[in-house]
Write a structure and sequence with these properties.
heterodimer, A: five-stranded antiparallel beta sheet, 9 helices, 21 strands, B: mainly alpha, 11 helices, 0% strand
């Protein structure tokens, strides 16, 4: 059980995050730059918060008020980094046994089990320099598992892999989740990964937490409970003005994954803006529609389907790393045969400017 | 070409002086290089300059300072003699001291450079696996710095073999005690009809340097392969 409530200023960026994570996989989900890695670094003791506390299994790891800061080696938190970070001068076997040098090792039985689970038997005598990206991440996961961790942190472990390897490593992560009794905090900006492996989702944006809850609630429904501000009823997207067409009163906004056209954007070119797209303003098409009044047609993939409620279904669509939500009838979802992974076009009827970032 | 007894004596003395100068200065150089690469403290620039001083000072000046400090009546020399019974003035140990100090900046520079190129993220990874500061240093930092350490050792070893000015000023030119290879060559060139002997010793010096270069090149290459994590080539 991880419980955390921390603040930390990083230049202009302010991180203020509080959540609890139980057993199973907790995903820290959000765009890059939302502060996800800073959170896991704070949990591992690599980043020191200015304020707050971090408890792990009832033990205080960090408490600014009481001056407690358990050093990284003593926290027993396994960390799988984005780039693996295997020790290049050691063999795979030595990498896996590294924690054993510092009395954090596991009995030989556990070593064999992890090696079997992750399929590392044939790699043991190799050196990291000659491994593929996927193999490196498997070894990194094994190395972290074999350090007797109370919690496993995975920071975008698939980020540097191609689609095929991503799937392969994700399968191993699922295996670990199901076979090894260790809670996992999984950092990702990819909807598909989060939907597939997370039990709990912590949705992060701009250094704060937007929503916490069971994965299907946070990822699959657009009408999150009231009081969750801008997230309610749709998607919130951080974008930047790239073009202003004064004659037609139109602005082009670039976001992580594409561009949007919007009217009445009172912002200069280059200025960051935050827009909201309500779920009921998004329709879905399987082919790119021709001769249509709608200005915003975005190519994406179905990430998740929500539960049907009174004939209505909320569909989560991933446009690049950005997530849109669409509210359609259950019959339409059935007729279009929507399943996660299906390539679709999101037709956006209206884009509303939520607020200007920075200027307030 | 077989060596005469005298030539052999010069060669062995030179090797002994260079060996001990490298051996004793290596741990100090690793410590100083680590501090320069990682720490920041007031006066660091001054400290850095002080370490590099032997590189830019005339060697004779270094030798003269050593004479003042480590002579039998010098402040450090008398302490060494009273407390440890070590006399360095006009002994081979003094030649090793002079050689070690002259080679020190070269050794520090090479080792510092390799410390600075180490990916510190690997050290952070080691700490999440339970390694404290010393553990990280011994199991990650030091092994990854190995190519630089080997280079530093070679540079300082070569510098020691060639040391002349500081040595002759500090411990003079005593046959069998402080007359190393360069001093012996110099002595022959000052002797009538000594050219042939000077030439023999010069050839010896060339061969010695080539051998040292070769050995270090092989070792650096092997270490670099390890550090880059490639499988060993059978």
């Amino acid at each position: 059980m991880l419980s955390l409530d921390i603040e930390r200023a990083l230049g202009d960026f302010r991180l203020a995050v509080a959540f609890e994570a139980g057993d199973g996989v907790t995903a820290l989900f959000g765009r890059s730059g939302a502060g996800k890695t800073s959170v896991v670094n704070a949990i591992a003791g690599i980043l020191r918060p200015d304020r707050g506390r971090i408890d792990l299994n009832g033990e205080t790891m960090f408490d600014a008020a009481r001056g407690i800061d358990v050093p990284t080696p003593k926290r027993r938190v396994g960390y799988v980094f984005q780039e693996g970070r295997l020790f290049p001068h050691l063999s795979v076997r030595q990498n896996l046994n590294y924690a054993g040098l510092f009395s954090r090792g596991m009995p030989a039985r556990e070593f064999d089990r992890v090696v079997e689970l992750l399929g590392l038997r044939d790699l043991l005598d190799r050196r990291p320099g000659n491994l593929s990206g996927g193999e490196k991440q498997r070894v990194a996961i094994g190395r972290a598992l074999l350090s007797s961790p109370r919690l496993l942190l995975l920071d975008e472990p698939l980020a540097s892999l191609d689609a095929h390897r991503k799937n392969e490593v994700l399968q191993y992560v699922e295996l670990i989740r199901d076979e090894v009794k260790v809670p996992i905090v999984y950092v990702s900006h990819a909807v598909e990964e989060v939907v597939r492996i997370a039990d709990t989702v912590v949705l992060m944006s701009a250094g704060g937490v937007l929503a916490v809850g069971p994965a299907e609630d946070v990822m699959g429904r657009s009408d999150l409970r009231p009081g969750e501000g801008t997230f309610e009823g749709g998607a919130v997207i951080d974008a930047k003005v790239v073009e202003q067409d004064i004659e037609h009163d139109l602005a082009v906004l670039a976001f992580d994954g594409g561009t949007l056209t919007a009217t009445n954007v009172d912002a200069l070119i280059g200025e960051p803006v935050r827009v909201r797209i309500r779920a009921r303003d998004v329709s879905i098409a399987l082919e790119r529609p021709q001769r249509i009044s709608i200005q915003n047609v975005l190519e994406g993939k179905v990430a998740a389907l929500g539960a049907e409620r009174s004939g209505i279904v909320d569909v989560t669509i991933a446009v690049g790393p950005t997530v849109l939500r669409s509210r359609i009838t259950a019959r339409a979802a059935k007729q279009l045969d929507l399943v996660p992974g299906l390539e679709v076009y999101a037709l956006v009827k209206a884009v509303s400017l939520d607020r200007r970032v920075g200027a307030g | 070409m077989s060596l005469t007894t005298e030539e052999l004596e010069v060669l062995l003395l030179s090797l002994r002086v260079a060996f001990w100068s490298v051996l004793v200065s290596l741990p100090c150089a690793v410590a100083v290089a680590y501090v320069l690469a990682r720490a920041s403290f007031p006066g660091k620039t001054l400290f850095d300059a002080a370490v590099h001083l032997p590189l830019v000072l005339p060697p004779v000046v270094v030798g003269f300072f050593l004479l003042l400090l480590f002579g039998r009546r010098g402040p450090l020399g008398s302490i060494l003699e009273q407390w440890f019974g070590i006399v360095v003035a006009f002994r081979w140990t003094g030649a090793a001291l002079a050689a070690g100090i002259m080679g020190f900046p070269l050794m520090v520079r090479a080792i510092r450079l390799s410390f600075e190129t180490i990916d510190r993220k690997l050290e952070a990874a080691a700490s999440t696996l339970g390694a404290g500061w010393a553990g990280v240093f011994v199991t990650v930092t030091l092994p990854l710095a190995l190519p630089g350490i080997i280079t530093g050792v070679l540079l300082s070893f070569a510098r020691s073999l060639g040391e002349f000015g500081a040595t002759i000023t500090f411990v003079s030119n005593i046959p069998g005690e402080t007359r190393t290879l360069p001093l012996a060559i110099y002595t022959y060139t000052q002797t009538p009809a000594g050219d042939a002997a000077a030439m023999r010793l010069s050839v010896l010096a060339v061969l010695l340097s080539l051998a040292a270069l070769y050995v270090s090149e092989v070792m650096v290459r092997r270490a670099a392969r390890r550090v880059h994590g490639e499988d060993a080539v059978a």
